[in-house]
Specification:
Layout (H helix, E strand, L loop, with lengths): L5 H8 L1 E4 L4 E5 L2 E5 L4 H9 L10 E4 L17 H17 L2 E3 L9 H7 L8 E4 L13 E4 L2 H10 L1 E5 L2 E8 L8 H12 L7 E6 L1 H5 L2 H11 L6 E3 L4 H10 L5 H11 L12 E6 L6 E3 L7 E3 L14 H13 L14 E4 L7 H11 L9 E4 L4 H9 L2 H7 L3 E2 L20 E4 L14 E4 L2 H10 L13
Parallel strand pairs: 3-4, 3-6, 4-5, 6-7, 9-10, 9-12, 10-11, 15-16, 15-18, 16-17, 18-19
Antiparallel strand pairs: 1-2, 2-8, 13-14
Bound molecules: 3-isopropylmalic acid (IPM) and iron/sulfur cluster (SF4).
The site of iron/sulfur cluster (SF4) has 13 residues, from loops.
Protein name: 3-isopropylmalate dehydratase
Enzyme class: lyase
Keywords: 4Fe-4S, Amino-acid biosynthesis, Branched-chain amino acid biosynthesis, Iron, Iron-sulfur, Leucine biosynthesis, Lyase, Metal-binding
Length: 471
């Protein structure tokens, strides 16, 4: 047998039929749904008089449009959003699909909820009408986003017509310096390879720096690989990944466990597997990264300067940098450090897990949010929220002047009522800094949770490495 990459092993083991040289019919072990991209798919399914043959392999979570105010019973006020949620409920009831509904105690952002309940296992193919499904590569599962018409196809057949991706390997060796995280690493990678740098590729991350990352940090890394255009992100599952899954999947026991472990042990690229493209990075070069523009690849180290578009080659990069600077109201050559922020948002499927909130807590310590800054923490899920409350994190952050909210996507894309005003500048732990993403005319600076916490305390973009008590 020829040597294969982990990506090809996952695709081949899920191929029901080869359609042509580029396309296969792929079996999908788990299909996650949200209220935003599923309604039209169900409508299409019903119009065609079709059912959902494998409801147990589908799960739905209300994520995007849900309000996050700290009330006991959440009510979605906005009529179109309320309709999306009630549609999802009706569709799940009709087809017997499990749903994490608005007031379910485990509700949250779909990509935070699914792994914490042991739904994501190494070797699976997981799809969702949401681009950040690449997150699951952290556990050795092939995850990727699909469009609404594909959601309908998956509901009806549990399969997908899938165009093969090319193989890319990104090796990162060395140790991440003090004060830097997986978020800084992925922002650095994206800034170097570009927002289209992995377009058309399934990316496998490897190297000593990746081995050293916690599973939650790997979620952050794989989550944002899509911001480089990746069609999938994978990390071969190691002891850490397996322990994470086994802890959360009590059904994997006895003979099933032995069979699972045997299967999982083969989930890595063969030693002589061929990758179409390979990149190498040195973790020692990672610094806390901050975006200055309106695309995730427009980022520099916090002690760097806003680049001069004139220094870029004439063409798309220069034009988009010029446009970006107009939007973010920054000047070429300006330092990012010291830039005042109005708002701090700690949340999203990139950085709202318990380790992220512990990091924020550690940075904040006994300090207080700067006067005039509104700082909001939106835990990724009900489970994260409960854990953070049990650990005293919520109480300490509230005392420091942060708002402590209920779980959801919230200000990551402002589809609920957590919206910034025009011109407001936000230090954000999210993954996209597109124009208008957090509110029309609002400006987003992507960064790590530690950096966002430091910005909240100082009221301006701050190099967290100057903090004495960081790790
Ligand atoms: C709403 C959804 C389709 C979208 C996505 O696909 O990623 C959203 O989650 C986002 O982060 O922009
Ligand atoms: S948290 Fe943000 S990136 Fe993640 S699914 Fe929600 S909107 Fe998309």
């Amino acid at each position: 047998m020829t040597a294969a990459t982990l990506y090809r092993k996952l695709v081949d083991s899920h191929t029901v039929a080869v359609l042509d040289a580029q396309n296969v019919l792929l079996f999908c072990d788990l299909h996650l749904m949200n209220e935003y991209t599923s309604p039209q798919a169900f409508a299409g399914l019903h119009a065609a008089g079709r059912g959902v043959p494998m409801p147990g392999q589908n799960v739905a979570v209300v994520s995007h449009i849900i309000p996050t105010h700290p009330v006991r019973q959440r009510v979605i006020q906005d009529p179109p959003s309320a309709l999306q949620a009630s549609n999802l409920r009706a569709n799940c009831e009709r087809h017997g699909i499990a749903l994490f509904d608005t007031n379910d105690r485990w509700q949250g952002i779909e990509h935070v909820v699914a792994p914490e309940h042991g739904m994501i296992r190494p070797g699976m193919v997981v799809i969702c009408g949401d681009s950040h499904t690449t997150t699951y590569g952290a556990l050795g599962a092939l995850g990727f986003g699909i469009g609404t018409s594909e959601v309908e196809h998956v509901l009806a057949t549990q399969t997908l017509v899938y165009r093969l991706a090319q193989d890319m390997r990104i090796r990162v060796d060395g140790r991440l310096p003090r004060g830097t995280t997986a978020k800084d690493l992925i922002l650095m990678i994206i800034s170097r390879i570009g927002a289209q740098g992995a377009r058309g590729f399934a990316v496998e991350f490897c190297g000593t720096a990746i081995d050293a990352l916690s599973v939650e940090a790997r979620f952050t890394l794989c989550n944002m690989a899509v911001e480089a255009g990746a069609r999938g992100a994978l990390i071969a599952p190691d002891e850490k990944a397996l322990a994470y899954v086994l802890e959360r999947a009590p059904d994997i026991a006895g003979e099933t466990r032995a069979a699972a472990l045997a299967h999982w042990s083969g989930l890595h690229s063969d030693a002589d597997a061929r990758f179409d493209v390979e990149h190498r990075f040195n973790a020692e070069e990672v610094a806390p990264f901050v975006t200055w523009g309106t695309s995730p690849d427009q980022a520099v180290a916090v002690d760097g300067l806003v680049p001069d578009p004139q220094a870029l080659a004439e063409g798309v990069a220069r034009t988009s940098a010029q446009q970006a600077l107009r939007y973010t109201a920054l000047a070429a050559g300006q330092p990012l450090q010291g830039l005042a922020v109005d708002h701090v948002f700690i949340g999203s499927c990139t950085n709202a897990r318990i380790e992220d909130l512990r990091e924020v807590d550690r940075i904040v310590g006994n300090r207080r949010v700067a006067a005039g800054v509104r700082a909001m923490v939106v835990p990724g899920s009900g489970a994260v929220k409960a854990q953070a409350e049990a650990e005293g994190i919520a109480e300490r952050l509230l005392a420091a002047g942060f708002e402590w909210r209920q779980p959801g996507c919230s200000m990551c894309l402002a589809m609920n009522d957590d919206v910034l005003a025009p011109g407001q500048r936000c230090a954000s732990t999210t993954n996209r800094n597109f124009e208008g993403r957090q509110g029309r005319g609002a400006i987003t600076h992507l960064m790590s949770p530690a950096m966002a916490a430091a910005a909240a305390i100082n009221g301006h973009i701050t190099d967290v490495r100057a903090w004495k008590d960081i790790q």
